[in-house]
Design goal:
alpha+beta; Helicase, Ruva Protein, domain 3; three-stranded antiparallel beta sheet; 23% strand; globular
């Protein structure tokens, strides 16, 4: 959840400014899943000179109009977990977010506002009429049709595929699909700080503490053609990330140390850049609203930090189709679970511990970290550990798994182990199998 310090090099001032301000909005909206983090940038010989870095960080601070995060500065690096040759560096502030929890929070907010959330449903195609769309679905809603006044094509890597069966005009914008992979290894340094490391190819690699016992290293930029479903970390990406980390970290990283890896696909606006790292991370909204046809709005590009502002601008474009649309309101709203008094999560955790004194403090903190002020809805009337049901390990109990099923659309073990939580990192294969078996027999307990 960051402004994109390196995007300043490419002159993307508008994108960085918007992202930095949205960073503050989301810190207020969901402080249980969006957290401030201090980044350390070691000064390396042969890389960007110190004066350039300092100017970039000053610009970053100025564009942010900071409200809660500390300013950047210079720092001595002794004791930071780096090789001794890196003695001086810079620090600055950004944020991290549990992106999967952020998706759930937004889906829950949409549901409260009246949206129908339909997991396991695939868009097959749409027939375009003069004043409405007739949309065909499959999966859990196989054979169903729904009608809509407007179609919003926010399919990310599949945005062009949606446009074709929707009988719209050929896309005026194209996407470039760029894979970004991350690796997770046992923790390699002490402290809560993250690193942003300069590489010889002028890309940067992020290294930061992850889930307490681990270090996460990412990311890569690999173009993958037009098949996003084939995304997956490649051996050369793992080697690249290990090499990037080993140039700086005192505790070295080998491919054999990788415990988990994951890849995501960036659906970037094709701006003609020769190299994938240089392609813009900005977004483009393409509205096809001919007078005799129902409108379709397609979203190209974008980054998670600016998702809320992107949605706001999308509705601005669709305003002619919704004459009674109220003014924008989400900038000052909390996401579900994020309505802490003065944004103080620590005070709320203390209150929850007083309310549930027989439940371990670590478990309560973990629940607040996932659900925020909705934690009492997870616990219900339970007041002891025994009432939480089967314990799978890693502070994961049947009570919470049931909550994921009934209130967060979880259906499979992977939903629980890697999306609603990251318990998969902490559980043995046998414990993960317990979760899988529990979910497979969930229907029998209803």
């Amino acid at each position: 959840m960051h402004g994109g310090l390196r995007y300043l090099e490419h002159g993307e001032i508008r994108l960085v400014t918007e992202a930095l301000r949205e960073r503050e909005v989301l810190l207020r909206a969901a402080p249980h899943i969006v957290h401030a983090m201090r980044f350390v940038l070691p000064q390396a010989a042969g890389q960007r000179p110190a004066w350039m870095i300092r100017i970039g960080l000053l610009a970053y601070d100025w564009l942010a109009r900071r409200q809660t995060l500390p300013a950047s500065g210079k720092v001595a690096l002794e004791g930071f977990g780096l090789k001794s040759r890196y003695s001086v560096g810079f620090t600055y502030s950004d944020c991290r977010v549990d992106d999967a929890r952020l998706v759930i929070a937004n889906a829950k907010a949409a549901e409260v506002a009246g949206a129908r959330i339909m997991p396991g449903t695939r868009f097959i195609g749409a027939e375009r009429g003069r004043d409405h769309w007739r949309v065909r679905l499959s999966g859990d809603h196989s054979g169903d049709y729904i009608t809509a006044r407007v179609l919003v094509n926010a399919a990310g890597p599949w945005v062009e595929r949606v446009l074709a069966p929707a009988a719209a005009q050929p896309p005026r914008t194209r996407v470039r699909l760029v894979q970004g992979s991350h690796i997770v290894v046992p923790r390699r340094y002490d402290g809560d700080h993250a690193f942003i490391l300069q590489n010889e190819d002028r890309r940067v690699t992020f290294v930061y503490p992850y889930e307490g016992a681990f270090t996460l290293i990412g990311t890569t930029d690999v173009e993958i053609g037009d098949s996003p479903e084939n995304a997956g970390v490649q051996p050369q990406e793992i080697e690249y990330l290990c090499r990037a980390a080993n140039r700086y970290l005192e505790a070295q990283v080998q491919p054999a140390d990788v415990i988990w890896s994951y890849s995501g696909v960036r659906a970037l606006v094709d701006d003609g850049s020769a190299a994938a790292p240089n392609v813009t991370r900005d977004y483009l909204l393409d509205l096809d609203a001919r007078p005799d046809r129902a409108p379709i709005l397609s979203v190209f590009g974008g980054k998670i930090t600016t998702y809320r502002k992107l949605a706001e601008r999308a509705l601005e474009k669709l305003a002619p189709s919704f004459p009674n649309l109220p003014p924008a309101w989400t900038e000052s709203a909390s996401l579900p679970g994020g309505n802490f008094v003065d944004g103080d999560v620590a005070v709320y955790i203390a209150q929850i511990r007083a309310r549930y004194p027989a439940i371990p403090a670590g478990l309560l903190s973990a629940l607040v970290g996932r659900h925020g002020t909705l934690t009492p809805a997870v616990l219900g009337e339970t007041h002891t550990v025994d009432e939480l049901g089967e314990h799978f390990g890693a502070d994961l109990y049947a009570r919470e798994v049931d909550y994921f099923r009934h209130h967060e659309w979880a259906r499979h073990a992977e939903d629980v182990l890697w999306r609603r939580t990251k318990a998969g990192l902490h559980l043995s294969s046998a414990e993960q199998a317990q979760v899988r078996t529990y979910l497979e027999h969930a229907g029998e307990r209803v």
